[in-house]
Design a protein that fits this description.
Main location: mitochondrion
Pfam family, one: WRW
Family: Belongs to the ATPase F chain family.
Helix content: 55-70%
Shape: extended
GO biological process, one term: proton motive force-driven mitochondrial ATP synthesis
Distance between the termini: 51 Å
Largest sheet: none
Strand content: under 5%
InterPro entries: F1F0-ATPsyn_F_prd
Number of domains: 2
Number of strands: 0
Order of helices and strands: HHHH
């Protein structure tokens, strides 16, 4: 098929720059990509007949990591390298 219609996992490494050039990086395109990713996440992990705790636990783990980074901004890769 067309390169622009392929999913990221179907693109070969040599085709990656051309595939990225076909992407829509406007605010509307980025918002559409985020909505598509969220709906596919929900369909895969949350809205299933026999689901487990994997989807919810990934969401909580991501929130914990993000909030840790917000609360402890002084801990970063740059400050770690400076102290050595």
């Amino acid at each position: 098929g067309l390169l622009s219609e392929r999913h990221l996992m179907d693109v070969r490494l040599g085709e990656l720059p051309m595939w990225l050039a076909t992407c829509d990086f406007s605010p509307q395109g980025l918002l559409g990509g985020i909505q598509k990713a969220w709906s596919s996440y929900c369909n895969k992990y949350i809205n299933v007949k026999r689901g487990g705790v994997a989807g919810v636990s990934m969401l909580l783990a991501g929130y914990c990591i993000l909030s840790y980074g917000w609360n402890y901004q002084h801990i970063s890769k740059i400050s770690f390298l400076v102290s050595i």
